[in-house]
Amino acid sequence: ALFMENARKGSIVSRANSIGSTSASSVPNTDDEDSDYHQEPYKESYKDRRRRAHTQAEQKRRDAIKKGYDDLQAIVPTCEQQDFSIGSQKMSKAIVLQKTIDYIQFLHKEKKKQEEEVSTLRKDVMALKIMKVNYEQIVKAHQDNPNEGKDQVSDEVKFNVFQGIMDSLFQSFNASISVTSFQELSACVFSWIEEHCKPQTLRDIVIGVLHQLKTQLY
């Protein structure tokens, strides 16, 4: 009976040890295995985040480029015009860039032309200011001496004298000068000046015009 009791206790202890070993083996390791179990998803999640951030950055860059081309098409007038060689197809980026370059070059030419026009206008303004000052001095001098110049020749007579002299000179100029080309004009004009614009010739023209006006006036 003692032997049987000891055998039964030994069997119970053996079964208990076996069950404990099996239960222990089925429980996951809380040190190494558990650490590996949590660490692997973290690495994978980090890669996903990097990939997602890279994808978003690339998409943002593409969107910025597309917006830039859209803005160019909206700003450049030639990009808005219908290109019959392209038809209804979407305008390529290369065409947009080329049309933009052409438009910028056109704007540079227009700017240069406007700068030249502004320079010319400034010179005209300066000349008008000088004329204004001279006329103001003439008016002031006339206001200071209102009786001065009453016996002088009128402006109409002066104009008639000038017109008569210019008409005579133009007749000789028209008969002697050829304006077919600039070369012929250059070759003839100096000889005309030497022949028809001598002091004695001009003196005779002026005297003749004055005699003619004297006859008309009196």
Provide structural commentary.
GO terms for molecular function: DNA-binding transcription factor activity, RNA polymerase II-specific; protein dimerization activity; RNA polymerase II cis-regulatory region sequence-specific DNA binding; RNA polymerase II-specific DNA-binding transcription factor binding. It is found in: Cytoplasm; Nucleus. Pfam families: HLH. This protein has 218 residues and is mainly alpha-helical. It has a domain at 157-217. It is built from 7 helices and no strands. The longest helix is centred in the middle third of the chain and has 52 residues, at 93-144. Mean pLDDT is 77; it is low at 20-27 and 30-35.
Show the helix and strand layout.
Elements: H1 2-26, H2 32-75, H3 77-80, H4 93-144, H5 155-176, H6 182-196, H7 199-217
Q: Roughly what percent helix?
A: over 70%
- Rounded mean pLDDT score: 77
Q: Provide the β-strand percentage band.
A: under 5%
Spans where pLDDT lies below 50 across 5 or more residues = 20-27, 30-35
Radius of gyration: 53 Å
Shape: elongated
Class by alpha and beta content: mainly alpha
Count of DSSP strands: 0
Q: Tell me about the biggest sheet?
A: none
What's the N-to-C terminus distance?
182 Å
Helix tally equals: 7
Helix-strand topology string: HHHHHHH
